[in-house]
Amino acid sequence: MKKEELLKTTFICTTILVSVIFFGINLGKMRAPAPVISQGELQQNVNALSVQGKGEVYAAPDMATLSISLSKTAPTTKEAQNFVATKMSEVQSLLKNFPIKAEDIQTQNITIGTEYDYGFGGGERKVKGYTATYAMALTLRELDAKKAKVLEDLINTLSGIEGVGIESLSYDIRDKTELFRQARSLAMEKAKQKAKELAKLGGVRIGKPIALSEEVDATPFFARKAMASQSNVAFADEASAEEGTSTIALGQLKVSVAINVSYPLM
Q1: How far apart are CA 156 and CA 99, in angstroms?
Q2: Would you place residue 5 in the very low, low, confident or very high pLDDT band (cuts 50, 70, 90)?
Q3: How does pLDDT run across 28-80, given as a tens digit for each residue?
Q4: Is position 3 within any domain?
Q5: Count of domains observed in the chain
């Protein structure tokens, strides 16, 4: 009898001990402390001044890309394709009279679609023809005031060909490396100046930058001669003489760089 009571007592004690250990483990997990952020990290995150400086530089484009399309709707796909092919040969022949290299002539798209006639009242659709379209891009390099007239002549010549459509005209600068360098330097100077002014207003000092990031942009900006200053009037008159009767306005491209800088507060 005593032996049975001893076994019961041992079993009860073991059960209680296991329960206490299991509860203690889980309680420890529940009460695990949150990640600790060091004082240095906290100071770095809080005691910092973040500013943005933006630098913009303008320059005339030195290349233009003209996008054109040749399109024809005909009763059959063969007729439509033959028309476009014939006009394409005419275009390529005319391009030999302009300073455009073979590598600057690029096919962009070729499509053949079916045209339908749905009639009135939502009746059954009927095929009324097929449309063949050929799209290409022409790049004119070493662009300047004189070549603006060449560009205009090119557009006028191409638009005079039946089936040819002028889709778009865009400008670019072949090498913008130096422009970006200038814009970047200007942006950094503006960011530094802004940080100094804010620090002075706040009665604090700033250290060396601890974080830098850059945003770049190069978009067309069309400058008008009417905005020229009095000192540039002679230059504008000379440019007008060089351009002749051209209606092409080259304008300028804007190269923009924004720099985000974070300074530690001392």
Answers
A1: 15
A2: low
A3: 444 444 344 343 443 445 589 999 999 999 999 999 999 999 999 999 999 99
A4: no
A5: 2
Question: Containing domain of residue 128, as a range?
Answer: 63-172
Residue 216 resides in a domain: yes
* Cβ atoms of residues 263 and 49 within 8 Å: yes
The pLDDT assigned to 46 comes to 59
Same domain flag for 241 and 146:
no
Q: Tokens 């090119």 belong to which residue?
A: 154
- Read off the pTM: 0.67
Which tokens in the block code for residue 5?
């009571």
Q: Which alpha helices (H) appear in the chain, and where do they start and end?
A: 2-30, 39-46, 77-95, 145-159, 177-202, 233-243
Percent of the chain with pLDDT over 90: 63
Q: What percent of the chain has pLDDT over 70?
A: 71
Q: Which of 1, 49, 82, 98 is nearest to 210 (CA)?
A: 49
**Residue pLDDT, tens place only, 125-154:** 889 999 999 999 999 999 998 899 999 999
User: Which residue from 242, 66, 54 is spatially nearest to 152, judged by alpha carbons?
Assistant: 66
Both 188 and 56 in one domain: the answer is: yes
Calpha distance 87→66 (Å, rounded): 17
CA dist 23 and 29 (Å) reads 10
CATH of the domain at 67: 3.30.70.2970
15-37 residues labelled b (16+ CB within 10 A) or e (exposed): eeeeeeeeeeeeeeeeeeeeeee
Edge to edge, what strands does the sheet with 48-59 contain? Answer: 48-59, 252-264, 211-221
Q: How far is CA 69 from CA 77, 100, 149, 152, 167, in A?
A: 17, 17, 22, 17, 7
Q: Which two tokens stand for residue 235?
A: 């230059």
